[in-house]
Amino acid sequence: MPVNLALPMKGDLKPIHGVRLGIAEAGIKRPNRKDILLIELALGSTVSGVFTKNRFCAAPVQVCREHLAQKNDPIRTLIVNTGNANAGTGEEGMRRARASCDALAQQMNLKPHQILPFSTGVILEPLPIDKILAALPSAIRNLKEDDWYSAAEAIMTTDTQPKAASLQINTPEGLITLTGICKGAGMIHPNMATMLGFIATDAAVNQTLLSQLTQEAADLSFNSITIDGDTSTNDSFIVIATGQSSVRIESQTSPTFLAFKEGLIQLSILLAQMIVRDGEGATKLITIEVGGGKNTDECERVAKAIAHSPLVKTAFFASDPNLGRILAAIGYAGIDDLDVSRVQMYLGDVWVAKDGGRNPNYQEADGQRVMKESEITVKINLGRGDASRTIWTCDLSHEYVSINADYRS
Amino acid sequence: MPVNLALPMKGDLKPIHGVRLGIAEAGIKRPNRKDILLIELALGSTVSGVFTKNRFCAAPVQVCREHLAQKNDPIRTLIVNTGNANAGTGEEGMRRARASCDALAQQMNLKPHQILPFSTGVILEPLPIDKILAALPSAIRNLKEDDWYSAAEAIMTTDTQPKAASLQINTPEGLITLTGICKGAGMIHPNMATMLGFIATDAAVNQTLLSQLTQEAADLSFNSITIDGDTSTNDSFIVIATGQSSVRIESQTSPTFLAFKEGLIQLSILLAQMIVRDGEGATKLITIEVGGGKNTDECERVAKAIAHSPLVKTAFFASDPNLGRILAAIGYAGIDDLDVSRVQMYLGDVWVAKDGGRNPNYQEADGQRVMKESEITVKINLGRGDASRTIWTCDLSHEYVSINADYRS
């Protein structure tokens, strides 16, 4: 049961001029399930991507990097399959990823390097390429602009519901529309996650600015969430700018650039938080704000130590203000010269730890009250600088164990 | 239900001449439960300790470090309480840790700095010092040599059974006896764990050699296990050499030294594995051997990435050979120049991943067979050097969540 996550309303998901979506059922893992998504882009679109840092990155991730690196021909179509990650599959996995690009290029009258392939699902199993190839004609036939809801459904794995949102920005140059979809559930961790995210806009954004904005948005959103600390082999976050609206984003100093950047980050965070809200077995959304650090890196280390601690996460699941576990996580986060007597900790509005020890005015009943909420903020001040970092995570429940013990069966 | 962990047989636990044990029930957390242990050492004993690296280390850990650092008077008594960690308790926590040393010193005619205090239990709650002081006379009255089984019981927290073992070594200079006890269960992670470990021997070992051996034994045992990746505020591993036997260990090159070292490491590993076997909710003991690394450090990082992955741990719980999760963990362990095409992975005797991809001869039924066993070895070869590292861990079960969601209630 996701945490305060409403189903997207189909009417709220705005089509993006220049993007068409095609869905098919290839029966990759199970029959009668949408498992293929094509995203076709109009000529003139720019595309940028941020990918997993996992050394065992999947074959499609390697192919994506290659195809984005070539500058001869623009990217024109993305193909996504669920049910199989095509990771840990060696040379044969690379051949199959390329085969899907080859077949799609031929049917769409493109070159193979104009296709970006994406896969998500079980690792170490051969990609059933024949099933995928057989489904391509039907996916191509289905291509249409107004189908983002189905697109969000087509990329789900252990997600309990589709994740999608749109956002519109009025700029001096006109209206910009952004629509995004993502999938997550487990193996979610910065850099990045078993996570696929796609955002498209009708603004025109030049390649340099788009690459920079994609990385910035990823860092503040999909790279700021963690479910279980596992970094997947397949994470990909793609931003597409079709340029079909009148708005041109060409300079970092223009008000339009700033408005677009803010909107892109806002939508990315919204989508990333949806992943946490629907984290495997999640019953609570936890925001961890670490401030007072010497630099962002040490704040991030503290926030992640808390976010990854199974003891902290099970305490949140139980609504048990066993808050010493948070102090312990701060203590082992690797800041060797941390003066714990300067550390403050708040749970919601309750000041729990003062100057490194229990706040004499702290009442367990106050901690208990906050722990019972479904969205909880932990604030830490390290008392040694001005840097800060925010990370979102969820609790660790029985359901997490059930889901991951049963995932393949 | 611990994994293949027999109860220690009282008759197998050898007394160590020069060590007396005193147990009491102070009612620190619950009534009618052994929760105080005194370990009294004969004059002439040497003592060495390795402690948590957590910056929020508990008050007793700080006092232990101080008392071990002073060379004026030898350590003569250890006092251990369960039920409260006296961690995250600030200056008042320090005062209470010292108060227990003061009171015990007075009653035993020692100086306070001849006492080492240890606490384990809930963090961030005030130590009920009055209860501890009230129980001291009874603990002192109970002091006797032959009570290691009760001593092991007295330091348990969420452990389901006492952990203790003895070992005897025939050396050219005579018989050496070692007896050890430990407690673990959750918050177990290298450097070190919610872990207390005490080993005593009747050999005489000079202070320099004892310190060196204590660190070496800790690294290969208690610093090589992990339950949940959480590093506790209270971990302590203490080795005591009473010198009451005829055996003197004074040179690193003597056969006696080598025999003693081997025995100490063997006993430490045995005790450390008992902690994993009785890890919170554990149903399996997993040995992770990473070889072929450029150095020990990178092997350790890979082994820990696997050992800490909730996805890997839940797959072991489910006996599901979802082994791609292990490859993913190798990939995000932080070896930036890892050539995955040189990586081999074995599950027990089954060659699963060959040259970075699925071994063409691998049959899922073979993986399934190994996954059903209660003790499983994962072997990884990184194919880039000669270094290796072994880490022990357990699976992640429903029971882990239950225990940690209910720990305080």
Describe the structure.
The structure is a homodimer of 409-residue chains. Chain A is α/β, with parallel strands linked by helices and 409 residues long. Helices cover 33% and strands 25% of the residues of chain A. Chain A has helices spanning 59-69, 90-108, 129-141, 148-154, 207-220, 255-277, 296-308, 310-317, 324-331, 364-371, 398-406, and strands spanning 19-24, 36-41, 46-51, 77-82, 115-120, 163-171, 174-183, 196-201, 204-205, 225-226, 236-241, 248-249, 285-293, 344-347, 350-354, 357-358, 375-381, 387-394. In chain A, the strands form 4 sheets. The first copy, chain A, has a 7-stranded mixed sheet, sandwiched between helices. In chain A, strands 3-11-8-7-6 form a 5-stranded mixed sheet, sandwiched between helices. In chain A, strand 6 (163-171) and strand 7 form a beta hairpin. In chain A, helix 1 packs across helix 2, helix 5 (207-220) packs parallel to helix 6 and helix 7 packs across helix 9 (324-331). Chain A is globular. Chain A starts with 18 loop residues before the first strand and ends with a helix. The interface between A and B is large, with 70 and 70 residues.
Q: What's this entry about, in short?
A:
The structure is a homodimer of 409-residue chains. Chain A has 409 residues and is of the alpha/beta class. The first copy, chain A, is 33% helix and 25% strand.
